[in-house]
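Repro case for the chain-ordering regression, as requested:
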Amino acid sequence: MGFFADLGRWFLENWSGDAGWLVRIWQHVEVSAVAVVAAVLVALPLGAWLGHTGRGGLAVVSVVNIGRAMPSFGILALALPFTIWLADTVWFIDNGLGFAPTFVALFALALPPVFTNTWAGIRGVDPEIVEAARGMGFTGRRLLRDVEFPLALPVILTGVRVTAVQVVATATLGALVGYGGLGRYIIDGFATQDDVRIVAGALLVAALSVLTEAMFSLVERRVVSPGLGIERQTTVPTPETRFRNGEHPEAVLS
Amino acid sequence: MIVAQAAGDPRFFRWDWVWGHLDLIGAKVLEHLVLTGIALGVGLAVSFALALVGLRFPRTYQPITWVTGLLYTIPSLALFAFLVPVTGFTTLTAEIGLVSYTLLILIRNIVAGVQGIDPAVRESALGMGYGRRRLFIEIELPLALPVILAGLRIAAVTTIGLVTVTALIGKGGVGFFILRGLNRFFDTEIVLGTALSVLLAVAVDLVLVTTERWLTPWSRTRGAG
Amino acid sequence: MPEPMISLEGVTKVFPGSAAPAVDNLTLEVAAGEVAVLVGHSGCGKTTTLKMINRLIDPTSGRITVAGEDVMTVPAPELRRRIGYVIQQIGLFPHRTIADNIATVPRLLGWDRTRIDERTDELIALVDLDPALRNRYPRELSGGQRQRAGVARALAADPPVLLMDEPFGAVDPIVRSRLQDELLDLQRRLHKTIVLVTHDIDEAIKLGDRVAILQVGGVLAQHDSPAAILRDPAGPFVEEFLGSDRGIKRLSLMPIRDVPLEPGPVVSRAADPEEARAAMARYGVDWFGILDDGNLEGWAWAADLEQGPIASLPARSFRVRLGYDDSLRDALDTVITSHTGVAPVFDGERFVGMLTAEAISRELAR
Ligand SMILES: Nc1ncnc2c1ncn2[C@@H]1O[C@H](COP(=O)(O)OP(=O)(O)OP(=O)(O)O)[C@@H](O)[C@H]1O
Ligand SMILES: [Mg+2]
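-- result from build under test --
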């Protein structure tokens, strides 16, 4: 029982201060949130517009495939030389370490799933409904805003949820490029062979991830029009059956 | 500024370094494939067992997806971190983590694949005197194969990416280069590790697609005649 | 009646979670070699009844025997291999070729390769499938071809009993009618005991030796030969179910053989013109048939008599002709469309008499 007592003591002793877990949680959430919001601001309008006009099918397939094949660890590592170069080149950025590479990596990571789910969600709206809306005089942007978007919302929100969970997970690796966040405890614990710190960090990361998943699930249930009556699954991807015939990419998944 | 100096060579990618380290690269690629192969093999076996339980006793399916979903949600690094105090910096630690990530995808696809079979096919098989086990092996499994293999492809590509993270617990396959490049500020290794990982994913995916076409001749469109 | 091939005694099925039984205390016997048709509105329990025979559904109570054996005493898979089963959606295995599909039950029974191959070829010929389709996959076949393959598969191990659930429901009416004829033809050769489910009363009348009409809840409304049911419907439900054209439907069950025929305005080659004029007057027509040695050669107009002796007249051929075993239903169409109101009937090549519209309406009135 000694280990668990130590673990309990660790949490009591390390909650405050610059390296305390309250600050670390905040750092973790901060970079994740900024990255997700930025990605949504860029990818959602783009995906919605391309989905609405029916263009970009090939792009979506490529984005899905590349997005899935790219290792997030690799993206994070590649972000470092990029931000260092940026800091050297652009005068107003004076530090290429820490927040910058972590943000860049997470942002890059978040774009594909938001984009593809938005695109697939809009494309997936029943063509008869769109037809009916056009018949009633909806066109262009209004059609997208008032009809297609609300109907695609469940799929889009699934995309945002999956993205957020993935971003929070990958933010853990930010410790490797000099960022704070909860990954610090694990990486430092590995280095110093401090099992208590490793497990404490892992617990915090796991809790934050599960909380993120739960929170977004809740939002999804609240926001989606009750008329759509979709059955929500609590966790990650839907089975690969929906887009099997190659018409759509497996966009709704992780 | 220390950083810029540590980066040493100004060139972004040095082919000469790659040529000079082909042996090491080959070894790491092999390690990567072995780690992936074991994870998928074990993951498939465990998933089949759990999917069978879920199909036979529908009440258990919800809890099974709930637990595997939880495993899927926990970040890989955290999962490895939970294991390190128990199993250390070992292949076992890496594999437990990697296998955990394949379960949700594989189980869902196995179950969806079997449940998606035309009920008329199942009914006529039963009507002709198939027993449960033969029904599963001869009819349900082959017909669910496309969906199962779609799941396996996703699991494979995901696993190949995740293997790179095991570099942090002393394994990593080509992730070894990513981590070392990061520590030494040596871009060539970062790019190399990432590119190799992507290439492996694409190659394995291609192999699986080909396998699928070969295993399911009935779903191919044939020319007239 | 000899020992029935299939018998249901007081069979009831109540699905869990539903209050009313889907099949209620049903007693029914099917004789060996007979086609029994279960017919009734949607949801009346036809499929449930059928599936209880091969134990895809187990009855809540009651007893079912096949060939004298209580089905509950035989392990279900074993029982099912002895009973052919054809369903509307056919349920061919999409991942197996037509030949492999047909070979399913022989394989389950562990036949050897050559025997299976021979049997497969035999069945492909039996159901009139193009042998070139042997190695195709089901999705490469038309609906009618699939249906034939489904029947071949059900017949593969030569089971004495065949269960068919709306076997022709998924094909268009023209193909359906042809498949029905083929089934009857097949049955004349094979003498299986067939239980066939349909909700189409015309199909039931056409195919059934005996028809069981079910009411909602699997209650037996009437069980008898189609002719008897049409003649004497047991109560208003059956009457309503048979529809207002019950009389016409009855005609389809009567062969011309059973109706007295008229000799018609027919004379032999050797007859003189006066005989021909008398025959035409008798029937009030302006044409006459020409018999040559008992063989109906054709006919001629009254006006043709001006051209010379009957022996030298060219015989015009009849555009309509009926077979002795054609049904009165077919005859009615023929007679009505022929502007003369009569049609010659042949037994093979032998002329047996003329059928008139009056003769048919006399039958209708009976
Ligand atoms: N597995 C089942 N569980 C519960 N109820 C069932 C089940 N199968 C059939 N039923 C019910 O039993 C009744 C009879 O169904 P059955 O399938 O035998 O009808 P049917 O006469 O074959 O109809 P149809 O012509 O539409 O095929 C229906 O009310 C149906 O809803
Ligand atoms: Mg039915």
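Ordering looks correct now. Residues C 15, 18, 22, 40, 42-48, 199 surround adenosine-5'-triphosphate (ligand 1) (CB under 6 Å).
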